[in-house]
Amino acid sequence: MFEHSIHGGLGPGNVGVVVACHGIGKTAFLVGIALDDAMRGRKILHVSLDKTVDHMREFYDEIFMDLAHSAHLEDLASERLQMERNRMIHTYAGKSFTIHKLRHSIKFLKEYVHFDPACLILQGFDFDRATLADIEAFQQLALELNVEMWMSAVTHHGVPRNENEIPEPLAKFASALAVIVQMTDKSDGVHLSLLKDHDNPNVAKLTLALDPSTMLLVKT
User: Fold this and answer.
1) Tens digit of pLDDT at every position of the chain (220 positions)
2) What gap in Å lies between CA 170 and CA 19, rounded to an integer?
3) Bridge partners, 87 (sequence order)
4) Partner residues linked to 88 by β-bridges
5) CA gap 33, 4 in Å, rounded
6) The sheet that has 189-197: what strands, in order across it?
7) Among 70, 101, 124, 148, which residue's Cβ finds the most Cβ atoms within 10 Å?
8) Residue 164: which of 208, 111, 203 has the closest Cα?
9) Rounded-to-integer distance, Cα 190 and Cα 216, Å
10) How far is CA 172 from CA 134, 168, 175, in A?
11) Residue 124: what pLDDT?
12) What angle do CA 164, 36, 145 make, to 5 degrees?
């Protein structure tokens, strides 16, 4: 349903961002996207700038088990094995991350490990310190590697928004982003709203709410 609302998905060569205040569930949402792809046989590279590999594996395991219970998966061991074979997690300690290092890592995975990701998750990037040139470099990387690239961004209550309701710090980078999804915590769950949908002038109104503890769909 989410893919349908953005006309079939993010698409290779594009950058999408999920934006929310602290603690709403951005990482869980990105893990959900990655799990969906991995369980459909697509390779996923998850790059975390603020969590360890072990922490991210625990995150994946927890959300996978919630999904398995909700979807009544019959062959749990087989599904988990497929997920783990199609997913790779990288982290960058301290402040060692650069786009050049990321490009080099992905090319190494392609050439020597024969792991060719279709989706790249970059979680924990600091948009407050970014420049438009940084985001355009991510856009170029997605095009160059032919991957769908999803990122997370932190915003705050009461920040300025542009004419399309895109909040800072993302508003100044909107030209380089294909899709922007906002998460908002409400009494009946975490609501998703679409702020940008490629170049479509009429952005669809999402009617999706997620369980705040599992990030699984609770209503439409």
Assistant:
1) 566 666 667 899 999 999 999 988 898 889 988 998 998 899 999 999 988 999 999 989 988 888 888 777 888 888 889 999 999 999 987 778 999 999 999 999 999 999 999 999 999 999 999 999 999 999 999 999 999 999 999 999 889 999 989 999 999 999 999 999 998 888 777 888 889 988 887 777 766 667 766 666 665 4
2) 8
3) 44
4) 45
5) 14
6) 87-91, 44-48, 119-123, 148-154, 15-20, 179-186, 189-197, 208-210, 217-219
7) 148
8) 203
9) 10
10) 12, 7, 8
11) 92
12) 70
H-helix or E-strand spanning residue 218: strand 217-219
- Cα 25 from chain centroid? 11
Q: What angle do CA 182, 57, 122 make, to 5 degrees?
A: 40
Which structure tokens are listed for 66? 């919630």
d(CA 198, CA 216): 25
* DSSP letter for each residue of 58-97: HHHHHHHHHHHHHHT-S-HHHHHHHHHHTEEEEE--TT--
Please give the distance of CA 64 from its chain centroid, rounded to a whole number: 16
Helix (H, G, I), strand (E, B) or coil at 152: strand
Amino acid at 122: L
Distance (Å, whole) CA 211 – CA 148: 25
Assessment of whether the complete model's pTM goes beyond 0.85 = yes
